[in-house]
Design goal:
Elements lengths: L1 H13 L6 E7 H10 L1 H4 L4 E8 L1 H4 L2 H11 L4 E6 L12 H4 L3 E4 L2 H10 L4 E8 L1 H13 L5 E8 L1 H10 L7 E4 L1 H7 L5 H5 L5 E3 L4 H17 L4 E3 L11 H10 E8 L3 E10 L8 H5 L14 H5 L31 H8 L3
Parallel strand pairs: 1-2, 1-7, 3-4, 3-5, 5-6, 7-8, 8-9
Antiparallel strand pairs: 6-11, 10-11
Length: 348
C-alpha cells in the first residue's frame, strides 16, 4: 500500500496544472484493472485515462458473425469459437440464439481434437483476436491439422488501429499504455513508431494496478521533460523483440489485409487473413462466404467508445436497455469490453 501511495503522490506531482493530459490504455484487461481498482477516482482530475479498442470481440465485423451463424446451421458443419463470441449480437441475432451446430472452445487445440473425433463433419474454427490469439491459431497450422478443419479468421493488428487513433485529432492522445499480452508477441519495439514518428510516449505495462501506475508515471515524466520514447515496466514478460519464433510462424500462415472493424469501418492493412498458399483452410474461400453490410444499432455508441471518443456512461442504452444479460452492442458482451467492465465495476 505504501508503494502505491508513493506512486500516486509522484503522479500528482507530475500532472500539469494548466492543461488536461489524456493517456489511452489500449488493452481491455488493463481497463478491467483500472475500473475495478477505482484508479480513476485516485488520480488528478486533469489526468484522463481513456479506454481504447483493446477488445477483439467488440471490433469483430458483424459480417463475420452472420456468416458464422449461417455456417452453424449447416448439417455438415460444426462451428467452434470462444465463449464471448457466442453472445455477440448482430442484425441476424447471435450464434447462441440463431445458430445450431456450434461448440465453445477455450483454445485452438480443442478445435483440432474436435475435428479428429468428428471426421464426417467440417469443423470451422471462428478465430478472432489480436496478435495474442493469432499466434496459437498459426501454431496449430504449423503442427498440422486434419483435412476437415477450416479457419474463419477475424484477426486484427493492434499497432495499426493505434496509428488510426493517433491521427484522429478529435481524440487527442498524449500517451499510450501499450497492451502487455500483445507486446509479449510483437515486442516493445513495435511501439517505437509512436514515440519516433508521432512524438507520443508509449509504455508497456503489466496487469496489476501498480504496474499500470508505474506506466502512467513514466509517460508523465516523459511529457514533463518534453521527450518521447518507448518504455517497458513489464520487462519480466515483454522483450524488445517480442516472441520472434511466434511472429515467424504467424507470418508463414497469415498476411496483412484490408479489413473492416465493427463500428469503426474499413481500415487498410489492419487485419490478418490466411495466405493464398493456405486457401484450402480458409473458410471464406472454401464456403464462398459473402461480405455483408454492417447495420447500425440505434442509440449504440460502441464504435465511438472503442475509439476513445466517449465513455460507456455517455451511451443512452448503458445500464438501461443494454446490460450484460441483454446486450445491444458488442461492448457489453465481452469481459474486455468497456461497457461490460463499467457495468460490473459500478463506476470507473
Amino acid at each position: 500500500m505504501k508503494t502505491t501511495q508513493n506512486i500516486l503522490k509522484h503522479i500528482r506531482s507530475l500532472v500539469p496544472a494548466d492543461r488536461k493530459v489524456r493517456i489511452m490504455n489500449v488493452c481491455g484487461s488493463h481497463e478491467h484493472t483500472i475500473a475495478f481498482s477505482g484508479m480513476r477516482t485516485l488520480l488528478p482530475e486533469s489526468l484522463e485515462i481513456i479506454p481504447g479498442p483493446g477488445c477483439p470481440v467488440c471490433v469483430c465485423p458483424e459480417s463475420d458473425i452472420i456468416n458464422a451463424i449461417s455456417l452453424s446451421t449447416r448439417d455438415d458443419v460444426i462451428l467452434v469459437t470462444y465463449g464471448d463470441m457466442l453472445r455477440v449480437p448482430s442484425k441476424e441475432g447471435s450464434i447462441r440464439s440463431r445458430g445450431r451446430n456450434y461448440r465453445m472452445i477455450t483454445s485452438p487445440s480443442e478445435a483440432v481434437a474436435l475435428a479428429r473425433s468428428n471426421p464426417d463433419k467440417k469443423i470451422v474454427f471462428f478465430s478472432i483476436g489480436f496478435e495474442t490469439t493469432t499466434a496459437p491459431t498459426a501454431a496449430i497450422l504449423e503442427t498440422g491439422v486434419p483435412d476437415n478443419l477450416f479457419i474463419l479468421s477475424s484477426h486484427r493488428l493492434t499497432p495499426t488501429i493505434m496509428e488510426v487513433l493517433v491521427k484522429d485529432q478529435e481524440i487527442g492522445i498524449d500517451g499510450f499504455i501499450a497492451p502487455g499480452h500483445v507486446s509479449a508477441i510483437v515486442g516493445a519495439n513495435a511501439w517505437n513508431v509512436f514515440s519516433e514518428q508521432y512524438g507520443i510516449p508509449t509504455v508497456v505495462a503489466g496487469f496489476e494496478a501498480e504496474s499500470l501506475m508505474l506506466g502512467i508515471t513514466e509517460i508523465l515524466i516523459q511529457l514533463k521533460r518534453g521527450m518521447a520514447s518507448t518504455g517497458n515496466v513489464y520487462a519480466g514478460v515483454v522483450r524488445p523483440e517480442g516472441n520472434v519464433q511466434a511472429r515467424a510462424i504467424m507470418d508463414r500462415y497469415f498476411e496483412v489485409a484490408d479489413v473492416n472493424w465493427r463500428g469503426i469501418g474499413h481500415i487498410p492493412a489492419s487485419g490478418l487473413e490466411l495466405r493464398d498458399a493456405h486457401a484450402m483452410k480458409d473458410a471464406r474461400k472454401v464456403f464462398g462466404l459473402p461480405e455483408i453490410k454492417e447495420s447500425h444499432i440505434p442509440g449504440c455508441l460502441c464504435g465511438t467508445i472503442v475509439l476513445g471518443k466517449a465513455y460507456p456512461s455517455a451511451c443512452g442504452l448503458f445500464k438501461k436497455a443494454c446490460t450484460p444479460k441483454t446486450p445491444k452492442g458488442p461492448c457489453m458482451v465481452s469481459m474486455e469490453g468497456s461497457c461490460n467492465i463499467w457495468f460490473k465495476a459500478g463506476s470507473a
